[in-house]
Design a protein that fits this description.
Layout (H helix, E strand, L loop, with lengths): L10 H24 L3 H31 L7 H27 L9 H18 L10 H25 L6 H35 L1
Helix pairs in contact: 1-2, 1-3, 1-4, 2-3, 3-6, 4-5, 4-6, 5-6
Length: 206
Amino acid sequence: MRFRLTPRETSFYDMFAASADNIVTGSKLLMELLGADTSARAEIAERMRAAEHAGDDATHAIFHQLNSSFITPFDREDIYALAGSLDDIMDFMEEAVDLVVLYNVEELPKGVEQQIEVLARAAELTAEAMPNLRTMENLTEYWIEVNRLENQADQIHRKLLAHLFNGKYDAIEVLKLKQIVDVLEEAADAFEHVANTVETIAVKES
């Protein structure tokens, strides 16, 4: 790690950790949605919306701190990228839950639970990794595993699309369900963006 002669603003580490912990909360709400009947989904969506707002607040706090800090722990563009990608994850998860409720989906297609399980695991890994930004240690396994999970998510997504287009569903239902599984896939991509940004930061700081 590069030797620095000046102090660094350390509150960023805590804010990134809080943002990642909030994503874990969102992933748990996604898991809860899977086991809920249609009458309980609106309440879950409301809690997810509150979590998404909390994520927005965390992102705005990071940007405010960045704009008011002379010294930063690593490059400013990387702080922007990391905060933005973390925020994207929550946005996509909230959108998926909202679409399930708005479209009044009776039953999610088989395979969505695998998508959500991948997201939940990626959320746990991301929350575990954020505190390690302080030392830039024990991060390699994190970004390797998240990239593996994203590849797994891609495979699940392709199988889900094949299932949706097999003729079982009518055209309108296909459009609804495809939008939901596509948004969940975007969430998996956003986890990979976070991991790639962390890798970039670690390489620069080594």
